[in-house]
């Protein structure tokens, strides 16, 4: 990245995951959270006995510190060596706060037989992906959820139509057959879901299972746009909403009422009212819509008021602002009390 581009996008974003043996995940959680908060890093990291997953952002120096801490200097020792890590940049801080969560799985499938640490499909490098998915004997499957697929996907890819990753098992049982679909190629945002999905398919008896190493993000970073077989933009789980080739921020936006990603065409729809509704949630029942829109309209009003005053409305910045305002109010009350007691 050039100096001018770096100045325009001062925040560095790190997405990572690693299936690893972390029986001490609960003990690591507060230590990792303190490390990130001390460096004003924001985002979400998920810890589980099976590994780590998440996306965070901060200054380049802060992210470099965290990178070293995770791979060599911190409580993980060398257990995260070889983690799948993807860096990108953002114009503004894409997260509101820092969260380190402890969960049973780093990506929830609820299928104990799917253990990527024991068995996993064949990794396919981004520069080899086009040739694989062009083959007629390969079934291509997008393992992401419906709202992600709606923004962009690879040509010929099957859309499982899932709302959550746990529904992927139902899609496999309904639409795929190991006797018929002998070669299956899967992809997802950063690689983690396909890794677990490939382990699941192998456990179900599928013969050859491939998955895109590093996911769509690696593909968009490494494959030139003129050679791309990916149409649209890739949804990301932060305030950037989507990215395109070169991992530049995309054109998609987010409905603040239902959290559904929106294309430019959907934002031009009459049903789209910023902060209130979009084509995906405007069809709610009249009463529920009225109540919801009243709540989100008030929230949008508060956001706009805070913006006009130069204040943050959500996240850690808003928390600090509220604390500062509370302290000032208490100081005024104390000063008033002292004046009255001195009279």
From TrEMBL:
Family, similarity comment: Belongs to the TrhO family.
Location of region: Disordered: 312-343
Compositional bias of kind Basic and acidic residues: 314-337
Residue span(s) of domain Rhodanese: 134-228
This enzyme's EC code(s): 1.14.-.-
Keywords: Oxidoreductase, tRNA processing
Gene3D superfamilies: 3.30.70.100, Rhodanese-like domain
Biological role stated in the UniProt entry: Catalyzes oxygen-dependent 5-hydroxyuridine (ho5U) modification at position 34 in tRNAs.
SMART domains: RHOD
Protein name per its UniProtKB record: tRNA uridine(34) hydroxylase
PANTHER family assigned: RHODANESE-LIKE DOMAIN-CONTAINING PROTEIN 7-RELATED (PTHR43268:SF3), THIOSULFATE SULFURTRANSFERASE/RHODANESE-LIKE DOMAIN-CONTAINING PROTEIN 2 (PTHR43268)
Species name: Pseudochelatococcus lubricantis
Catalytic activity: uridine(34) in tRNA + AH2 + O2 = 5-hydroxyuridine(34) in tRNA + A + H2O
